[in-house]
Amino acid sequence: MKRRNPFKPVALKHGFTLLELLVVIGIIAVLASILLPVVNRAREEGRKTACIQTMRQIYLAVSMYKDDYNNYLPPWLSNLYPSYIGTNKKIYLCLSDTSKGTEGGKPDWHQDQYSETDDTSSNTTAPGRDPQITACSYLYEFCGATCTWFENSYVSSSSEFIEADTNNDGTVTWNEAKKWQMKSYMGPKIPIVRCFWHTRSPLTNDDIVLNMSYDGNLTISGPEWETTTH
User: Fold this and answer.
1) In which band, very low, low, confident or very high, does the pLDDT at 17 lie, cut at 50, 70 and 90?
2) Segment (H or E) for 191
3) CA distances from 14 to 6, 11, 17 (A)
Protein backbone atom coordinates (compact mmCIF):
# COMPACT_ATOMS: atom_id res chain seq x y z
CA MET A 1 0.00 0.00 0.00
CA LYS A 2 1.25 3.45 -0.94
CA ARG A 3 1.88 5.64 2.07
CA ARG A 4 1.12 9.38 2.13
CA ASN A 5 4.08 11.62 2.76
CA PRO A 6 3.28 13.25 6.11
CA PHE A 7 5.37 16.29 5.19
CA LYS A 8 3.54 17.05 1.93
CA PRO A 9 0.81 19.73 2.32
CA VAL A 10 -2.70 18.55 1.63
CA ALA A 11 -4.53 20.48 -1.15
CA LEU A 12 -7.89 21.60 0.16
CA LYS A 13 -10.82 21.83 -2.24
CA HIS A 14 -12.69 25.00 -1.35
CA GLY A 15 -15.42 26.71 -3.41
CA PHE A 16 -17.38 29.93 -2.84
CA THR A 17 -19.94 29.80 -0.11
CA LEU A 18 -23.43 31.17 -0.72
CA LEU A 19 -22.65 34.18 1.44
CA GLU A 20 -19.52 34.97 -0.56
CA LEU A 21 -21.44 34.73 -3.84
CA LEU A 22 -24.11 37.07 -2.54
CA VAL A 23 -21.44 39.57 -1.50
CA VAL A 24 -19.85 39.47 -4.98
CA ILE A 25 -23.24 39.87 -6.66
CA GLY A 26 -24.01 42.80 -4.38
CA ILE A 27 -20.75 44.52 -5.25
CA ILE A 28 -21.38 44.05 -8.97
CA ALA A 29 -24.91 45.48 -8.59
CA VAL A 30 -23.58 48.56 -6.76
CA LEU A 31 -20.91 49.14 -9.42
CA ALA A 32 -23.49 48.73 -12.19
CA SER A 33 -25.83 51.25 -10.53
CA ILE A 34 -22.96 53.74 -10.43
CA LEU A 35 -21.59 53.13 -13.92
CA LEU A 36 -24.77 52.71 -16.00
CA PRO A 37 -26.01 56.30 -15.55
CA VAL A 38 -22.53 57.54 -16.48
CA VAL A 39 -22.50 55.37 -19.60
CA ASN A 40 -26.02 56.48 -20.55
CA ARG A 41 -25.11 60.14 -20.13
CA ALA A 42 -22.03 59.65 -22.30
CA ARG A 43 -24.14 57.98 -24.98
CA GLU A 44 -26.66 60.81 -24.88
CA GLU A 45 -23.89 63.39 -25.19
CA GLY A 46 -22.67 61.53 -28.27
CA ARG A 47 -26.15 61.50 -29.77
CA LYS A 48 -26.53 65.19 -28.99
CA THR A 49 -23.25 65.99 -30.76
CA ALA A 50 -24.39 64.00 -33.80
CA CYS A 51 -27.72 65.84 -33.75
CA ILE A 52 -25.98 69.21 -33.75
CA GLN A 53 -23.98 68.19 -36.82
CA THR A 54 -27.16 67.02 -38.54
CA MET A 55 -28.89 70.32 -37.82
CA ARG A 56 -25.95 72.19 -39.31
CA GLN A 57 -26.27 70.09 -42.47
CA ILE A 58 -29.99 70.82 -42.62
CA TYR A 59 -29.33 74.55 -42.23
CA LEU A 60 -26.77 74.44 -45.04
CA ALA A 61 -29.31 72.67 -47.27
CA VAL A 62 -31.96 75.28 -46.42
CA SER A 63 -29.48 78.05 -47.29
CA MET A 64 -28.74 76.49 -50.69
CA TYR A 65 -32.47 76.18 -51.35
CA LYS A 66 -32.91 79.88 -50.50
CA ASP A 67 -30.15 80.81 -52.93
CA ASP A 68 -31.92 78.93 -55.74
CA TYR A 69 -35.43 80.18 -54.93
CA ASN A 70 -34.97 83.93 -54.57
CA ASN A 71 -34.56 83.80 -50.77
CA TYR A 72 -37.72 81.72 -50.23
CA LEU A 73 -37.54 78.99 -47.61
CA PRO A 74 -38.63 75.45 -48.50
CA PRO A 75 -42.23 74.66 -47.48
CA TRP A 76 -41.00 71.49 -45.75
CA LEU A 77 -37.67 69.95 -44.87
CA SER A 78 -38.66 66.98 -47.03
CA ASN A 79 -38.51 69.33 -50.04
CA LEU A 80 -34.73 69.38 -49.60
CA TYR A 81 -34.56 65.69 -50.57
CA PRO A 82 -32.53 64.67 -52.52
CA SER A 83 -31.18 67.68 -54.42
CA TYR A 84 -30.02 69.69 -51.41
CA ILE A 85 -29.58 67.15 -48.65
CA GLY A 86 -28.47 63.99 -50.42
CA THR A 87 -30.07 60.56 -50.67
CA ASN A 88 -29.48 59.35 -47.11
CA LYS A 89 -32.90 59.64 -45.46
CA LYS A 90 -31.40 59.03 -42.02
CA ILE A 91 -30.36 62.68 -41.93
CA TYR A 92 -33.99 63.40 -41.03
CA LEU A 93 -33.72 61.31 -37.86
CA CYS A 94 -32.27 62.26 -34.48
CA LEU A 95 -30.43 59.35 -32.85
CA SER A 96 -32.28 60.07 -29.58
CA ASP A 97 -35.66 59.75 -31.30
CA THR A 98 -37.00 56.40 -30.11
CA SER A 99 -39.89 56.62 -32.59
CA LYS A 100 -37.47 56.83 -35.56
CA GLY A 101 -39.17 59.99 -36.77
CA THR A 102 -42.71 58.64 -36.88
CA GLU A 103 -43.93 60.90 -34.07
CA GLY A 104 -42.73 64.01 -35.87
CA GLY A 105 -41.06 67.05 -34.35
CA LYS A 106 -42.12 66.36 -30.77
CA PRO A 107 -42.51 63.18 -28.70
CA ASP A 108 -46.14 62.12 -28.32
CA TRP A 109 -46.04 62.81 -24.57
CA HIS A 110 -44.99 66.42 -25.18
CA GLN A 111 -47.38 69.26 -24.54
CA ASP A 112 -48.33 71.59 -27.42
CA GLN A 113 -47.87 69.05 -30.19
CA TYR A 114 -48.50 71.32 -33.21
CA SER A 115 -48.89 68.13 -35.23
CA GLU A 116 -49.60 70.14 -38.39
CA THR A 117 -45.83 70.72 -38.58
CA ASP A 118 -44.96 67.01 -38.64
CA ASP A 119 -43.08 66.22 -41.85
CA THR A 120 -44.24 62.59 -41.79
CA SER A 121 -46.42 60.31 -43.86
CA SER A 122 -49.10 60.38 -41.14
CA ASN A 123 -49.62 64.12 -41.67
CA THR A 124 -52.04 63.83 -44.58
CA THR A 125 -52.97 67.52 -44.44
CA ALA A 126 -49.40 68.75 -45.08
CA PRO A 127 -49.52 70.79 -48.31
CA GLY A 128 -46.63 70.16 -50.70
CA ARG A 129 -44.39 67.91 -48.60
CA ASP A 130 -42.32 65.24 -50.38
CA PRO A 131 -43.92 61.81 -49.74
CA GLN A 132 -40.55 60.11 -50.29
CA ILE A 133 -39.72 61.22 -46.74
CA THR A 134 -41.97 59.30 -44.38
CA ALA A 135 -40.39 60.24 -41.03
CA CYS A 136 -38.68 63.31 -39.60
CA SER A 137 -37.52 64.06 -36.05
CA TYR A 138 -37.08 67.80 -36.47
CA LEU A 139 -39.57 70.61 -35.93
CA TYR A 140 -39.35 73.02 -38.87
CA GLU A 141 -40.81 76.31 -37.68
CA PHE A 142 -41.02 77.87 -41.14
CA CYS A 143 -43.13 75.12 -42.71
CA GLY A 144 -46.10 75.65 -45.02
CA ALA A 145 -48.77 74.35 -42.62
CA THR A 146 -51.47 76.62 -41.20
CA CYS A 147 -50.22 77.98 -37.88
CA THR A 148 -52.78 76.98 -35.26
CA TRP A 149 -51.21 78.87 -32.37
CA PHE A 150 -51.16 82.13 -34.35
CA GLU A 151 -54.74 81.80 -35.57
CA ASN A 152 -55.84 80.96 -32.03
CA SER A 153 -54.03 84.04 -30.72
CA TYR A 154 -55.19 86.64 -33.24
CA VAL A 155 -58.56 87.08 -34.91
CA SER A 156 -58.55 87.48 -38.68
CA SER A 157 -59.51 91.16 -38.42
CA SER A 158 -56.61 92.06 -36.12
CA SER A 159 -53.72 94.13 -37.38
CA GLU A 160 -51.32 91.33 -36.44
CA PHE A 161 -53.20 88.77 -38.54
CA ILE A 162 -53.53 91.09 -41.52
CA GLU A 163 -49.83 91.96 -41.40
CA ALA A 164 -48.77 88.33 -41.09
CA ASP A 165 -51.06 87.11 -43.92
CA THR A 166 -48.74 88.33 -46.64
CA ASN A 167 -50.52 86.57 -49.51
CA ASN A 168 -53.99 87.67 -48.32
CA ASP A 169 -55.51 84.20 -48.49
CA GLY A 170 -57.20 84.41 -45.08
CA THR A 171 -54.82 81.97 -43.37
CA VAL A 172 -51.43 82.37 -41.70
CA THR A 173 -48.87 79.63 -42.22
CA TRP A 174 -46.01 78.87 -39.87
CA ASN A 175 -43.71 80.48 -42.41
CA GLU A 176 -45.76 83.68 -42.37
CA ALA A 177 -46.14 83.68 -38.58
CA LYS A 178 -42.42 83.24 -37.99
CA LYS A 179 -41.52 85.92 -40.52
CA TRP A 180 -43.96 88.23 -38.76
CA GLN A 181 -42.34 87.43 -35.40
CA MET A 182 -38.89 87.94 -36.87
CA LYS A 183 -39.86 91.29 -38.36
CA SER A 184 -41.86 92.49 -35.36
CA TYR A 185 -39.63 91.76 -32.41
CA MET A 186 -37.50 88.60 -32.53
CA GLY A 187 -35.06 89.22 -35.35
CA PRO A 188 -32.86 86.56 -37.00
CA LYS A 189 -32.21 84.69 -33.75
CA ILE A 190 -35.57 82.95 -34.20
CA PRO A 191 -35.15 79.19 -34.72
CA ILE A 192 -35.66 77.59 -38.11
CA VAL A 193 -35.18 74.00 -36.93
CA ARG A 194 -35.58 72.60 -33.40
CA CYS A 195 -34.96 69.19 -31.86
CA PHE A 196 -37.05 68.15 -28.84
CA TRP A 197 -35.77 64.58 -28.69
CA HIS A 198 -33.24 65.27 -25.94
CA THR A 199 -36.04 66.07 -23.47
CA ARG A 200 -37.59 63.65 -20.99
CA SER A 201 -41.04 63.26 -19.48
CA PRO A 202 -42.18 65.08 -17.41
CA LEU A 203 -40.98 68.17 -19.25
CA THR A 204 -39.24 70.91 -17.26
CA ASN A 205 -37.33 74.09 -18.09
CA ASP A 206 -34.13 72.19 -17.33
CA ASP A 207 -34.67 69.98 -20.38
CA ILE A 208 -32.42 70.49 -23.40
CA VAL A 209 -33.79 71.61 -26.76
CA LEU A 210 -31.43 72.25 -29.68
CA ASN A 211 -32.19 75.23 -31.93
CA MET A 212 -30.73 76.26 -35.28
CA SER A 213 -31.54 79.92 -35.73
CA TYR A 214 -32.40 81.84 -38.90
CA ASP A 215 -28.97 83.47 -38.84
CA GLY A 216 -27.22 80.07 -38.59
CA ASN A 217 -26.32 79.98 -34.91
CA LEU A 218 -26.82 76.85 -32.82
CA THR A 219 -28.36 77.60 -29.42
CA ILE A 220 -29.40 75.37 -26.53
CA SER A 221 -32.51 76.28 -24.61
CA GLY A 222 -35.39 74.88 -22.63
CA PRO A 223 -38.72 74.05 -24.32
CA GLU A 224 -39.51 77.78 -24.60
CA TRP A 225 -36.46 79.16 -26.37
CA GLU A 226 -37.58 82.76 -25.86
CA THR A 227 -37.43 82.52 -22.06
CA THR A 228 -34.98 79.75 -21.18
CA THR A 229 -31.35 79.28 -22.19
CA HIS A 230 -28.66 76.80 -21.14
Assistant:
1) confident
2) strand 191-195
3) 21, 9, 9
